Amino acid sequence: MKVILLKDIKGTGKRGDIINASDGHARNYLIPRGLAKEATAGNINNLKAQKASEKKRQDEELEQAKELAEKISKITLKFTSKAGDGGKLFGSITSKDIATKLKKDHKINIDKRKIVLDSPIKELGSRFVEVKVYPEIAGKMKVEVTAQ
């Protein structure tokens, strides 16, 4: 019997897959537990429509992410901090500081975990910081640190 999986089932398939299951397994286990439904013509058409709308939504998210990455690439964040001899900062500038300033100055809300810093910025000068917007899409933003 052909069934459409409604949830991921380890060893059987992923959500949305159409699989051949034995009649007993489908009628006694999968369908009563809400893990699958019978693959009728109507259900298959509904599944295709859901997959099409999901693809369209993902394409729209991808376009928005590309626009945001391009917008981020044009931004220069400027920080002022107290520094000692040799340009060493008395504190450091972390990804949280960058995310806060980005939200405050440019109204762009980015999670601090999406900002890639090898280590906190502890020196005066400028550097480029990568901001991951979407899987495989990132923008490089310039961060300048000057002394007070």
Describe the fold and architecture:
This protein has helices at 23-30, 41-73, 95-106; strands at 2-5, 18-20, 36-38, 76-81, 88-93, 115-116, 121-123, 125-134, 137-147. The protein is of the alpha+beta class and 148 residues long. The protein folds into two domains: 2-58, Ribosomal Protein L9, domain 1, CATH 3.40.5; 66-147, Roll (Ribosomal Protein L9, domain 2). The strands form three sheets. It has a four-stranded mixed beta sheet. Strand 8 and strand 9 (137-147) form a beta hairpin.
Radius of gyration: 25 Å
Shape verdict: elongated
Overall mean pLDDT stands at 92
Q: Enumerate how many helices there are, as a single number.
A: 3
CATH superfamily descriptor of the largest domain: Ribosomal protein L9, C-terminal domain
The CATH top-level class label of the largest domain:
Alpha Beta
**Spatial strand sequence of the major β-sheet:** 4-9-8-6
In total, how many domains does the architecture comprise?
2
* CATH T-level topology of the largest domain: Ribosomal Protein L9, domain 2
Please bin the fraction of helical residues. 25-40%
Low-confidence regions: none
Terminus-to-terminus distance: 73 Å
Q: What is the chain-wise order of helices and strands?
A: EEHEHEEHEEEE
Structural class: alpha+beta
Q: How many DSSP E strands?
A: 9
Largest sheet features: 4 strands, mixed
Beta-sheet strand percentage? Answer: 25-35%
Give me the CATH architecture of the largest domain, please: Roll
